[in-house]
């Protein structure tokens, strides 16, 4: 099933971003800095339509 492998791939990507730069992180939760990095690396932040500030606001409201 493609859905299962897609979900596993998504979860692995989340874990990698969640532990990036934090030796104590478990990979179960993500901080705002790593969320912003994920958005930047995935080209969600383009500086015009979506800015870093907007990504920070979304993170704050959802967490």
Automatic annotation (TrEMBL):
Give the molecular function GO annotations.
tubulin binding
Question: What SUPFAM superfamilies would the database entry show?
Answer: EF-hand
Task: Give its localization.
Answer: Cytoplasm, Cytoskeleton
What is any one of the record's Gene Ontology cellular component terms? microtubule
Please tell me whether the keyword Protein transport is annotated for this protein. Answer: no
Q: Which UniProt keywords apply?
A: Cytoplasm, Cytoskeleton, Microtubule
GO BP, one annotated term: microtubule bundle formation
Would the keyword Cytoplasm be found if you checked this record's keyword annotation?
yes
Q: Which InterPro entries match?
A: EF-hand-dom_pair, TPP/p25
Task: Report any Pfam family annotated for this entry.
Answer: p25-alpha
- Which PANTHER family does the UniProt entry name for this protein? P25 ALPHA-RELATED, TUBULIN POLYMERIZATION-PROMOTING PROTEIN FAMILY MEMBER 3
State the family named in the UniProt similarity comment for this chain.
Answer: Belongs to the TPPP family.
Q: What is this protein called in UniProt?
A: Tubulin polymerization-promoting protein family member 3
What is the species of this protein?
Laticauda laticaudata (Blue-ringed sea krait)
